[in-house]
Amino acid sequence: MKEGPDIAQIGALIGDPARANMLAALTGGRALTATELAAAGGITLQTASSHLSKLEGGGLLAQRKQGRHRYFTLADEAVARLIESMMGLAASRGHLRHQPGPKDPALRKARICYDHLAGDYGVRMLDSLVASGSIDAIGDGLAVTTKGESDLQCIGIDIGSLKSSRRPLCRSCLDWSERRAHLAGSLGKALLASFMEKGWARRIPESRSVVFSPEGDRQFLKLFPLQS
Amino acid sequence: MKEGPDIAQIGALIGDPARANMLAALTGGRALTATELAAAGGITLQTASSHLSKLEGGGLLAQRKQGRHRYFTLADEAVARLIESMMGLAASRGHLRHQPGPKDPALRKARICYDHLAGDYGVRMLDSLVASGSIDAIGDGLAVTTKGESDLQCIGIDIGSLKSSRRPLCRSCLDWSERRAHLAGSLGKALLASFMEKGWARRIPESRSVVFSPEGDRQFLKLFPLQS
DNA sequence: TTCATAGTTCGATCGTAACCGAAGCATCTC
DNA sequence: GAGATGCTTCGGTTACGATCGAACTATGAA
Question: Of A12, A47, A198, B113, which has the highest C-beta tally within 10 A?
Fold first, then answer.
């Protein structure tokens, strides 16, 4: 019976609501302080401190001290993907905690997932890249084509330099709101970064939401047309 | 803060050691009765009954009644993949529960993962299929080539009929012992089934282990040579 | 029918862990 | 230095849930 790794420890770490909320907040990709995470978890600083040390001890979080602040992030992309896939499963089983509010539609439209774009816009972007032949999709796998390489170069993404990083260029990531794949990996990160750099989109503080400016919206929709 | 699906519920379900052991036992792919799962979890039948109804209520398990038995399985492949990916993460963080025993090496060599082959042999099989050009690998994605289609036909796997099922033909599944991908999906299932049908391999009761006969071992190694 | 086996429900116990107040460090500012 | 801010540690309370014994229901066998 006692075969293999112990998933109960990790499950228990994620299984506490306060910790789950903190982890979900960190899925936003930003490094957060203990105080911010305490707020995200809806608990006091003392309690958060104890939770955070447990999460770190369990290998789910990484921290770096900076002056008198202590910044926490998810330990690595593997953790982010686990959290995201649990969200997908939770959504498909109807485990929801959101009370539908004004903020919710915005979140479904575009949000941060670790470091790339998710939601309707994230899914649309990947669909469009695949339809235009910039990205090849085989099952769950994604690869940039030579056509995509030059197309992306035109909008300021240098595939060559991205390739040199150890992180995979493309990854598909299951979107919990759309239930379809969006683009992760270093390319997904670079694309979102370029949108923000161009002023097309910006992040809403304290939230995973990403909002597009009217002009950015127009450009985005033109760049990634819907084909059906 | 209250954005998106609630991962805490699922985490908490997996987070109890007894439940985690039951889920891990079900990763073996077989449908198990409440009594068997109680043994797997190391608890009494009453306690198991309560756990099982929670797991079912949470959407992680499916059950079917058959006479006076009640058979439980993982709800679907998504759950199996979550469990397996948590095992991968747990292994990489050093959350182990196995006391190294004589059974352990066998488990690392070949075992069941839901319904396909995992462990050293599972990884080797996929590597060999990719190296021989039977399967194309792009990132995490896998696809059978036309060459692969005819090669597999020769060993009695009919890709055409597998394609008609709704389940994906190929999937990569991260192996927790090898830390590399092995072949899942309906093709992975069909391959393992054919090995067992030919008498090359058989399952060990009450375990995830798969043992190969001397002849089966020879055939398997010949069929999927190591290229390095 | 009677008996055995599979499983659920109830009730009570018990342990663990989440929680916060208060006090203690550590780091920055003035 | 003094004071403020960020965070941790300690101690004690509380609540939830895992556990099992016992009683109950359901299915199958004799």
Answer: B113
Residue of B nearest to A107 (CA): B3
* Segment A82-120, tens digit of pLDDT: 999 999 899 888 777 654 444 677 888 999 888 899 989
A72: nearest Cα among A19, A11, A26, A116: A26
User: In three state form, how does the secondary structure of A77-101 look?
Assistant: HHHHHHHHHHHHHHHHCCCECCCCC
3-state secondary structure of A73: strand
Q: Which fold has domain B7-76?
A: Arc Repressor Mutant, subunit A (1.10.10)
The residue whose two tokens read 């670079």 is A190
A209 SS3 class: strand
**Which bases in strand D are touched by protein, i.e. have an atom under 7 Å from a CB?**
5-10, 17-23, 26-28
B49 contact to strand C (CB, 7 A limit) = yes
Q: Of chain A residues 18-57, which have a CB less than 8 A from chain B?
A: 19-21, 23-25, 39-40, 42
How do residues A128-185 score in pLDDT, each as one tens digit?
999 999 998 877 788 899 999 999 999 999 998 888 887 888 888 878 787 788 898 8
**Chain B residues within 8 A of A137 when measuring between CB atoms:** 141
Structure tokens given for B104 = 């352990």
Tell me what ipTM this predicted complex has: 0.83
Does the domain formed by A7-75 have CATH 1.10.10.10? Answer: yes
Specify whether the backbone of B167 is left (phi greater than 0), alpha (psi in -120 to 50) or beta.
beta
d(CA A31, CA A45): 17
CA dist., res. A217 & res. A228, Å (int): 20
In chain B, CATH 1.10.10.10 covers: 7-76
Q: Where exactly does CATH 1.10.10.10 map onto chain A?
A: 7-75
Residue carrying the six token digits 């080797």: B124
Q: In angstroms, what CA-CA distances link A53 with A7, A13, A43, A61, B125?
A: 19, 11, 15, 9, 41
Q: Give chain B positions within 8 Å (CB) of A203.
A: none
Contacts of A82 in chain B (CB under 8 A): 85-86, 89
Q: Is strand C within 7 Å of residue B33 (CB)?
A: yes
Q: Does A90 touch chain B (CB under 8 A)?
A: yes
